[in-house]
């Protein structure tokens, strides 16, 4: 159970719904829609072991499971609705070893977010788009926007200001810890001079945070009176290719790739990134009897 849901709308439900779910289930769904869209999740049917929701329950997170705020935890009720602040939401279902019930069913759909500012964390750079109407409405000039390195200039049209900010240039700062690599830059702006304003100079903070299996994209605007926060998520750009020998000269294009028991496999993993300091690590690889059967798997690599 669980998995990645990437369509603009869809359904998720507990295992075997509407029949009783199994004991000791631990299912995690990641709902990820297009960048700059929000997710609305609606539970229409919920039946689990009641009480204080210590045994069987559903949790909804506003982003990845380990690092995001908990929007709700429940085991009963009707028509519960949650809305994300970004394009990623996580749902976790847990059951214990005692009683089982019908479980739950939920539907989700996506809606466009505010387009005043948008942020994409791409393979080699951050793509930032700022609405000129948004700038003018707050008394800032499109022609006065600069990065940490002022020599990196934006593309300005009649409607938008666009920055393509490399991860390794233009004053981008790289910081890392055990779980996250963060690329940061700041877009600065000043008053246009044609509007009387009490605002300080504009500071639009742009952050791309690379987690173990997810890109986190954060942008917020700060001045005297307001903050605008925006977070988006996307996946690593990684290519996996099988080869027919240890020479790695002839790739295997068959999909699915059928192999024999105890056959040696040759796999190349390639990470597309302009950052030379990244290390690619292959954690887990499994085989299954058929392309659509993942209930029975054979471990090729498990936890490295």
Automatic annotation (TrEMBL):
Any idea which UniProt keywords this protein has? Answer: Disulfide bond, Signal
Describe the location of the ZP domain by residue ranges. Answer: 120-304
Signal sequence coordinates: none
**What Pfam families does the database record attribute to this sequence?**
CUB (PF00431), Zona_pellucida (PF00100), ZP-N (PF23344)
Q: Which InterPro entries match?
A: CUB_dom, Sperma_CUB_dom_sf, ZP-C, ZP-C_dom, ZP-N, ZP_dom
What positions does the domain CUB occupy? Answer: 1-111
Q: What is the name attached to this protein's record?
A: DMBT1 protein
Task: Look up and give the organism this protein is from.
Answer: Calyptomena viridis (Lesser green broadbill)
Gene name on record? Dmbt1_4
């Amino acid at each position: 159970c669980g998995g990645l849901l990437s369509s603009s709308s869809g359904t998720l439900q507990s295992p075997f719904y509407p029949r009783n779910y199994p004991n000791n289930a631990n299912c995690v769904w990641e709902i990820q829609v297009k960048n700059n869209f929000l997710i609305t999740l609606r539970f229409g049917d919920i039946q689990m072991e009641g009480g204080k929701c210590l045994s069987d329950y559903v949790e909804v997170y506003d982003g990845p499971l380990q690092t995001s705020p908990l929007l709700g935890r429940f085991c009963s009720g009707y028509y519960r609705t949650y809305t994300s602040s970004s394009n990623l939401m996580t749902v976790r279902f847990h059951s214990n070893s005692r009683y089982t019930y019908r479980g739950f069913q939920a539907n989700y759909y996506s809606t466009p977010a505010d387009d005043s500012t948008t942020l994409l964390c791409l393979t080699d750079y951050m793509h930032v788009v700022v609405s000129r109407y948004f700038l003018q409405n707050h008394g800032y000039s499109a022609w006065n926007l600069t990065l940490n390195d002022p020599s990196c200039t934006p593309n300005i049209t009649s409607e938008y200001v666009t920055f393509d900010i490399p991860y390794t240039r233009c004053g981008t700062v790289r910081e890392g810890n055990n779980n996250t690599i963060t690329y940061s830059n700041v877009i600065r702006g000043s008053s246009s001079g044609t509007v009387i304003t009490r605002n300080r100079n504009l500071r639009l903070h742009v952050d791309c945070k690379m987690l173990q299996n997810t890109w986190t994209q954060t942008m917020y605007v700060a001045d005297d009176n307001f903050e605008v926060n925006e977070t988006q998520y996307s996946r690593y750009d990684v290519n996996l290719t099988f080869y027919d020998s240890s020479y790695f000269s002839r790739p295997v294009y068959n999909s699915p790739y059928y192999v024999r028991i105890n056959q040696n496999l040759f796999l190349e993993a390639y990470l597309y990134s302009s950052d030379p300091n990244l290390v690619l690590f292959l954690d887990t690889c499994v085989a299954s009897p058929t392309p659509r059967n993942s209930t029975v798997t054979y471990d090729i690599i498990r936890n490295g």
